[in-house]
Amino acid sequence: MLKLHQLFFRNFLIILSITLFISGFVSYFTLKNIELNHFEDNLKSNINIIEIELLNSKNRDLNRYSASFENINDLRITLIDAKGVVLADSSKDIKEMDNHLNRPEIVQSKTDKYGISIRHSATTNMDYLYVAKKIGLNGSSIYIRMAVLIDRIMSDFYNLWFKVTLIFAISIVFALFIKFYINKKITQEVERITDFLHHLSNKKYRPINSKSFTEEFNSIFILLEKVAKKLKKRDKQKKKFTRELLLKNRQNREIISAMSHEFKNPVAVILGYSETLTQDKDMNENIRDKFLGKISQNAKRISDIVDRITIAIKLENQDLTLKISSFEIKALIQNVENLLKYKYKDREVEIIGEDRKIEADKTLIELVLINLIENALKYSDDNITVEINSNEIKIIDRGIGISKEDINRVTQKFYRVDKHIWNNSLGLGLNIVKYILKMHNTFLDIESRLDEGSVFSFKI
Description:
The protein is elongated, with a radius of gyration of 52 Å. The protein folds into three domains: 4-156, PAS domain (Beta-Lactamase), CATH 3.30.450; 239-315, CATH 1.10.287.130; 321-459, Heat Shock Protein 90 (2-Layer Sandwich). The strands form three sheets. Strands 2-1-5-4-3 form a five-stranded antiparallel sheet. The protein has eleven helices and twelve strands. By secondary structure, the protein is α+β, with helices and mostly antiparallel strands.
């Protein structure tokens, strides 16, 4: 496996090689085309000069003129008549030259302003760039053709290409120097990180200097410093967390024990009465009905316990959906009062305030009211009051109250203020209330003082 600096160097060379190849390939042909276009423009300019001079001179020796022009400009010039016969040439004897009417540059110049071709010359046995132009002279047409050796073009091109290559080479050397410098720095920073992590794994939380030559490494060192501080803090809290975990496990055992106790009593009652009914076939009808009522009552109690646990779990897992309807809140409170009368026969629930309609899930709001009103009845000896306001419902009792320390915890699942007296409760009621109100985008507000009473309210 390669080290980071080796991997970086390898990838750097690969990218650099590919970049140089592509840029070299592209620049080669680009510069070549630039040179060719430059010479084409140069030949066209010279043709235009020759055209002007020929038109302004009536008795000019064409052979002598073409030879002198080549001597000055180092360019081959050929003059050809309309039939393709060579009238003058700066490099060769015209008697030795063939008819040029079908030369590509001559053919193209018949229709275009200029004719251009790159080809081998049979006359001179060399490669040329040809540019030709058709002009009118003394009442007839002639072709002015100029040529430059390809070797000359390529010589200029190679000189230019050499300079470009030299610049590339200098750039590569400079890039490699920068690469080695950066590589050295990266290696040093990686070694710092490795050394720090090694100490961290051995729980040696030493500080690290976050200053670095790059912002990225600087950010890494800052994060490592934060991680070290958090790990150090967590180590200090390890014993505390262990104690809390043991406490939680003990509470869970107490909850299981409480649930067992909750189910044990009604199950024992049901078993006792049902065995008595089974054994005594001649039991008095009134006593039988009383026993059956006790069995039904305790069966309902078991069903209520299961329902509370099920609802609490569903609410926490968000498995319940709201079924919104419009209903009168006072009528619902009165219905809850009637449901609880059989259990709290000597207690009164006073309902004050004007009735109003609300939009909510009637079944779930009824469950909220049952839990809050029954809690108020359970933990107080006096009558309780349910107050209906314009946007709020209050359940007021004058019972034992709740301490400041317990107010924020009474809505937790399975939490009870008195850890030793279960009083037929699993501590699920207020937890269920909290989740139902949360589904209705509201919350339970609790005001209480020890030995003075409590006010449970929610807006809806």
